[in-house]
Every structure is written in structure tokens, then in C-alpha cells.
């Protein structure tokens, strides 16, 4: 099975620039989770959404790359049935003429 979380939006501290450390900015997260659905054991996507948002808000990452690596850890720790994870974190407002995104993929097969 695959769950897709698309356009998860919230404000948080993320970045290395002085103003990014002081003023929360809009962040968007897309995440794909694959897992084995067996014997009625499912993945609660509402808990996955909550985990992603809470982790990002609590840890106030300097780099998007570090945020993605930490999310890989937290997702696997909380959802051991996960087989693969793809995460994209976007900063839609950081530059006036584009959306900046960083993506990562992890396999636990």
C-alpha cells in the first residue's frame, strides 16, 4: 500500500538566515509512505501528518536536508511497518520568483 500526504502546510522556523531564525515561514511537505497491509494492520495517516508537523515545529531545523533525515528516523521509529519513505519539503515564499524544494528517499526493504 502507499499513502500520499500532499501539500501539508504550516508555519515553522526553518533556515540559516537571521530572519528565518526569528520569523516562522510557510512550509509545505509532501510525503509518500509504502507499507505492507497485513492482518488489518494499517498506517494511520493522521498520526503521520501530526508527527511530521510536530517534529518540524519542535526541532526548528537549520537545513531542509537535516529535517528530512530526522523525519526519516521519526517515521520509521513510529511506524515500523514502513517499507519506503519519500519526503519533499518546500519553501514556497523564500524567493520571489520560484519555489525551493529538497527531496529525499529512504528504503527499508
* CATH domain fold name: GTP Cyclohydrolase I, domain 2
Total number of beta strands:
4
What's the CATH class, please? Alpha Beta
Dominant shape: elongated
Order of helices and strands: EHEHHEE
Q: Write the CATH homologous superfamily.
A: GTP cyclohydrolase I, C-terminal domain/NADPH-dependent 7-cyano-7-deazaguanine reductase, N-terminal domain
Q: Which architecture would the CATH scheme give at its second level?
A: 2-Layer Sandwich
Roughly how many Å is the radius of gyration?
14 Å
Q: Count up the domains.
A: 1
- How many strands, which pairing sense, and closed or not: the largest β-sheet? 4 strands, antiparallel
The overall average pLDDT, rounded, is 96
Read across the widest sheet, the strand sequence of neighbours is 1-2-3-4
Distance between the termini: 14 Å
Fraction in helix = 25-40%
Unreliable stretches, pLDDT < 50, 5 or more residues?
A: none
Tell me the β content: 35-45%
Structural class: alpha+beta
DSSP summary: helix tally: 3
Layout of secondary structure:
Layout: E1 2-12, H1 18-22, E2 25-35, H2 45-59, H3 64-78, E3 82-95, E4 98-107
Antiparallel strand pairs: 1-2, 2-3, 3-4
Describe this structure as you would to a colleague.
The chain has 109 residues and is an alpha+beta fold. It has one domain: GTP cyclohydrolase I, C-terminal domain/NADPH-dependent 7-cyano-7-deazaguanine reductase, N-terminal domain (GTP Cyclohydrolase I, domain 2). 32% of the residues lie in helices and 42% in strands. The protein contains 3 helices and 4 strands; from the N terminus they run βαβααββ. It has a 4-stranded antiparallel β-sheet with strand order 1-2-3-4, covered by helices on one side. α2 (45-59) packs across α3. The two termini are 14 Å apart. The model has no long low-confidence stretch (mean pLDDT 96).
